[in-house]
Every structure is written in structure tokens, then in C-alpha cells.
Design goal:
The structure is a homodimer of 392-residue chains.
Chain A lengths: L15 H11 L7 H14 L4 E4 L2 H11 L7 E4 L9 H5 L3 E5 L9 H11 L1 E3 L2 E4 L2 E9 L8 H11 L2 E5 L7 E2 L15 E5 L12 E5 L2 H11 L22 H11 L2 H19 L5 E3 L6 E2 L5 E5 L8 H12 L4 E2 L14 E3 L3 H6 L2 E4 L7 H19 L1
Parallel strand pairs in A: 2-3, 2-6, 3-15, 6-7, 7-9
Antiparallel strand pairs in A: 1-10, 4-5, 5-6, 8-12, 9-10, 11-13, 13-16, 14-16
Helix pairs in contact in A: 1-8, 2-8, 5-6, 9-12, 10-12
Chain lengths: 392, 392
């Protein structure tokens, strides 16, 4: 096999094997064990928040957040069209209805359109925002590719209209504000709930895994209770609520504790690699590298090359296949718009313009923390060559 | 610390560490990887079935089965009162309604009462069983503690009334019929769906994990699709259905492959230990060890001592606490009746008699496969002594 530059793979340069072996040797591999609580402690310290619940996935973190936010069948939840579909599916797990709100140039929910939807398409009754006779209970704002959404403006709207804010920080562990009202606050710790993911492609991984935080410590305790089958104590089978099997396992958490030791190093490498890409793509006429919100320090998890569609008309599939087959470079298209997926075709969309624009133009290029300077130079060179070739 | 006899802990005497280390070294720790497919292959071969989907937990296996069975809000699902609450919660995840059907002396669903409920409390309309204007879509039959339910009689009723049968074999991996119509068939492979669990306390463990099978191979393929976020292919983000993040991870599956190599050995140890307990409790006047269904070979996962409540009136908590604190013996009460848990207090129950009877009387005694003959003799001796003491 020739050269292979993966898009985003795990990096196990630290104590991963040591801690996992320790969990196995102790026989603590399931949903109890010291690594779980240790991971929660380290996450809380890192995020400057009181309490974090480790769970099974970002999806389960989002689902539990919706449950805790009181989303019930028939409610409306405002969601983004440009993100991984797991940000929206939990709305359907609750048999509630999504309404798609467009993104801004950060790829995250546009606060102006969010406000306009609330003002123009809804009314307030008994302190609740109502749309088509349904309660708009919550919104899911995704910090896409590690880029912070405009949380100041979003929180303003949400507070005004009594909407619970679920921050989908599954891609944004480490992203924080450096300026403004929320200076020092991390993505996921600003809204009512914050969901993180430690899936295999994320900035740190536990294999499969996630975490939730909330703006009140006792709410996190309750989320932990729900995630452990709502068992009132470990020995007797008394359950006061409908629980879920959403707890992280100790073996996954062992990986996570090792990964937390490396997280800041990974973020620094992401920055270094982004800076080099930025330099390499400087002046390239067929595409430009998107940036991250000013006044924030992003984890720069993923890099987005915005392709000039007036010049490159090849499909994403052609571009990706060519890079993979000829140069061993793994890239991906941004997601298919969620509102265009079969299960969501009939759902309401509000002023979608930028979502479709970016969805047709973004190519994600390799972002693994192991990549060498040579890998990055090779990648940038070949990506530019392929786009030039396809533009001719 | 003095002696400690655990109730049911994992046994990692085989290749567990080797395979898990291999998964980490390869960087395949998430929801893709060779151990997942290997575990599925080994499970299918062991269960003599075509196709098995490895997933995140027994709970997720049950939930996916209900989804695939077409259970929607307002439907009715027939469930048992005596089991772990995770057998029933997924009914509520679908916003459907459980109706509790009593167990027989096997602790599993009573087919006679099931039939009576269908005959006397329901009517058939357009080929569908209707109760209180609601469709009785499915039933969940749990093979409690590894004891096979009376599947011949249950399948008869289910076929007659067009009810999908979800076998909760989470505790019964390895249990099979040796005689009768289903001779050679394993628990979980008789109904429409079968759910397995590899939680830490089960006969084999993957930390957290489970599996699903179905009576049609293509249905299992569809369950696998649903469990992997309903992604149509690995590279492009097209989803034709609402999916779930329910796939097993490769690191968990690595544990599972090692455990599968030991499964039959574990079942044999369970039998050997049961036989010794049987001998030791022979003639004990305050309790008797429950057996397993004739015409089956059970995995004998858990042992149930039925306490004579005319003589021992102490609470389960008193018995359990005394055994733990004075002798280091970990025991547990059977579960609290699900219909008596807060979230289910208002649900309908049908002729519950044996459920409450057994729920008040069963003490589960240590069943870990590591226990030595001396551990078992010590345990039996002390359990009898404590019950005698509390009966005085």
C-alpha cells in the first residue's frame, strides 16, 4: 500500500494501554469504577464547571438533555440543518418536532434568524413560546467543527423566549471564549446543557463515549441518575423514574483519563497544523480555509476548505475519490443537509440559505494530530493539484 | 478486610487483555473494527443462527427490537412484572404502554395467563389484537436468571394473535431446549427478536454491551443499520431513517471475543456450582433452591433461594445486610416488582399472583464462576445459619 493520510484518527501516545490494562486487571470494566469518576473530575476541572456526567455517547448526552429539558411528544425543538444527524435524531426519540434554523458564516445557528423566527413565526402564551399551537421547548446549538456559535446573541433570544439551550459541544471540547461577556467560558458550559462526544474521530476518544454538563450541579446529578437506569441505590431495585442504560463504562473511561492528559497538547497541534495549512492555502484561487470565531480560542478540531463552485463544478464524490485513490489522502464532504434526509423531508425550515451554500462547498481535509509537517505539505499540495485538475 | 464472596463478577482468565491491547495498538477502539464482526460471527455460530448484531447494551437491543417491531406511541406491549426494569423501560422510550402479565413458577411469563388476557380482555380487529382501543403490538418475554420461558406455549399464543415476540435473553446466553418442538434452539432464537446482554454481571461481559438477533437475517442487517446512526455508507452523510448510536465498540468487542472462548467453560462451572449448592441446601427447612425448566439446558447464570416466609419474617434488607457485614457474603434480593415502581404505578396488571409471591421470597446467592468449592460451602453454611438465626 502507498501513502495514507487519514482524516481524523485517534492518537494513543500516552497512558491509554496502561490505564485500560489496569481496569481489566481490577475486573472493573462495566458501568462502575474509579476511572469513570476520575474522568468526570478531570473534565469538570478542565471545563471550569462543577459537575460532569460521563455517558455512552454524544447522542445519549443530547438525548438525556432533551429529556431533562422536558421535551415531550408534540413539542418543537429548534435545530441546525448543517451538522451530524445525531444532533437532531434525539428530538425524534422524544417524538417531538424539529424546526430547522439556518446557520451563519460560522456554520453554527444564526442568532438573527433564530430571533426572527421567534418574533415573526411564534407567539408568547403564558410565558411559553408557541409555534403552530406547539411549545418551542428547546434549541440545539452545535459548535460545528469546534467553532464557537454566537452564544451571546443566542442566549439573549433563548432567555427572552424561555427556551432551554442545549449546546452540542460534541466537536468542541476545549473551545472557549477569550473575550466578551463569556470570556473564560468553555463551549458546553454556557447554555442550560452541554453535550460532549469522545467518539473515535473526536479530539479525545474513549472509543465510544460522551459527557453532559448543565448549569446547575444538581441537574447533572439527576442526569447521572437517569443514565444509570434510575436505580435509587446499587443494591435494591427501586426506580423512581424511567431510566436509560447510558452510563460510560470504566474501560472506556480509562482510555478517557489517559486522553485528558494529552488534550491540551492535541489542541496545540491542531492549531499548529491549521496555521501551516493556512499558509499553504494562502492565495489559492479555487478554495479558502475557513476560520474560527474572533474572541474565542477554538479547539480547531476540523479544517474546512471552502471550494469555489464557480470554478470547480466536479461533485464532492469525484474530488474525494480522486484524492483517496490517487494520493491516499482521506477527505470528506460536509454532511448532507439534515432537512434533506428522508426522515426530515417534511419538517419545517426557516430561511435556509447559508446552510445549503456551505453544504455544497466544504471539503474537510486531514486533521489527525499525528500528521507531520511533511504530511500536511503533501496534503495541501495534492488537494490544490486535484482541484486545479478538476477545474480545467 | 476479611473474606469477600462476590455475587457475580467478571472472569478474565483468558485472552481479554491481549485482545484489548491489540485493539488499542491498532487504534481501532470505536464503532468499527474486526473484533466487532468477529464477535458477531462467533455469537451467530454459537447460537446456531445466521446473523447477530453487536450493540451497546441489552437495553439498546430491546429498544431496537421494539422499534423494528413497529411499536409506536399508544401501542400496548405485554411485559413481565418480575425482572430488571430495563426490559420494560424501552416500551416507554417508544411512548407505548406496558401491560403486566404474571409469571409462572419458572419466574418467566405465564403462557396460560397470557392466553387468557388475549382471549378475555382483548378483541381481534382486522387481524390485530386490540385492548382498550389500542393495538397489542408485541410482548417481551424474559428468560429470568437463565431459565427458559415456556416458549412453545408462548409462541402459540403470539402466532394466533399476531403479536411480535421479543425474547429478552439478556440473562440466558447459552440456555437451550434439549427436548420438544424447539430441541436444539437457543433462548433468543425462537421469537421474532432476541436480545442479549454482556453487562459486567452477566455470564460473559464486554464491560457494557449486548447483541440482537432476529428470525430473519435481513432484519438483523436492518437492526445493524439502525444501530449505526442509519448511515447509508461510511463516507457520505446520507440517512434514510432515524438511527441510533447503539453500536458496540471494537474495544468492548475485543473483550467479548475473549469471553466467547470461555463461555462453555463458564456454563459448566455454573452447573457444577449449582449442583454443589443443591446438595448443600438439601433438606434445609427455611429455603429451597429453585430449579430450571425440564427439557432445557440452562446457562444457570443465577441461583435463587426461595425463603420460607412463614418462618423467616425478617426483611430482605436485614438478611442481605447481615450476610454482608458479618460474613462478607454478597447476596441480593430479586428485583422490586416493576408494576410497583413509581413510573409504572398506574399501568394495567393482569392477574399478578406468582410475581408478588416470588418477589417477596427470592434471595440470589453468589454465582461468580471463580468461586471455589470452599467458597460455596462457606456461603451455604453461613446463609443457612443467618436464616436460622433470623427465624428464631
Amino acid at each position: 500500500m502507498g501513502r495514507f493520510i487519514p482524516l481524523s484518527i485517534p492518537n494513543f501516545e500516552g497512558n491509554e494501554r496502561k490505564y485500560v490494562d489496569d481496569a481489566i486487571d481490577q475486573g472493573w470494566v462495566s458501568t462502575g469504577g474509579a476511572y469513570i469518576t476520575e474522568l468526570e473530575k478531570r473534565l469538570a476541572a478542565y471545563l471550569h464547571t462543577d459537575n460532569v456526567c460521563a455517558c455512552q455517547s454524544g447522542t445519549s448526552a443530547l438525548h438525556l438533555s432533551l429529556v431533562e429539558a422536558g421535551v415531550v411528544p408534540g413539542d418543537i425543538v429548534l435545530v441546525p440543518p448543517v451538522t451530524f444527524i445525531a444532533a437532531v435524531n434525539p428530538v425524534r426519540y422524544q417524538f417531538a418536532e424539529p424546526v430547522f434554523i439556518d446557520c451563519d458564516d460560522s456554520l453554527c445557528m444564526d442568532p438573527l434568524k433564530l430571533r426572527r423566527f421567534c418574533e415573526e413565526k411564534c407567539e408568547v402564551k403564558d410565558g411559553r413560546l408557541i409555534h403552530n399551537d406547539k411549545v418551542v421547548r428547546a434549541l440545539v446549538v452545535v459548535h460545528v467543527f469546534g467553532n464557537m456559535a454566537d452564544m451571546e446573541a443566542i442566549m439573549d433570544v433563548a432567555e427572552k423566549y424561555n427556551i432551554k439551550v442545549i449546546e452540542d459541544a460534541t466537536e468542541a471540547l476545549g473551545t472557549r471564549y477569550t473575550e466578551g461577556k463569556y470570556a473564560g467560558k468553555f463551549a458546553g458550559t454556557i447554555g442550560h446543557f452541554g453535550a460532549y462526544s469522545f467518539n473515535g474521530n473526536k479530539i479525545i476518544t474513549t472509543g465510544g463515549g460522551g459527557a453532559i454538563t448543565a448549569n446547575k450541579s444538581e441537574v447533572v446529578d439527576h442526569l447521572r441518575y437517569l443514565s444509570t437506569q434510575a436505580k435509587n441505590d446499587p443494591h435494591y431495585y427501586i426506580h423512581d423514574e424511567i431510566g436509560y442504560n447510558y452510563r460510560m463504562t470504566n474501560i472506556q473511561a480509562a482510555l478517557g483519563v489517559a486522553q485528558m492528559e494529552e488534550l491540551e497538547e492535541f489542541v496545540e497541534r491542531k492549531h499548529k497544523n491549521y496555521d501551516l495549512y493556512k499558509e499553504l492555502f494562502e492565495g489559492f484561487e479555487l478554495g479558502r480555509l475557513l476560520g474560527y470565531r474572533e474572541g474565542t480560542y477554538s479547539n480547531q478540531w476540523f479544517y474546512s476548505l471552502l471550494i469555489d463552485r464557480t470554478k470547480v463544478t466536479a461533485t464532492m464524490r469525484e474530488i474525494i475519490t480522486k484524492l483517496q485513490s490517487e494520493y491516499g489522502i482521506e477527505t470528506r464532504a460536509i454532511w448532507g443537509l439534515i432537512n434533506e434526509q428522508l426522515p426530515y423531508l417534511k419538517e419545517e425550515c426557516f430561511e435556509l440559505e447559508k446552510g445549503p451554500y456551505y453544504a455544497a462547498r466544504i471539503l474537510n481535509i486531514p486533521a489527525s494530530t499525528q500528521l507531520t509537517e511533511e504530511d500536511l505539505r503533501y496534503t495541501a499540495e495534492k488537494v490544490m493539484a486535484v482541484l486545479k485538475e478538476l477545474a480545467e
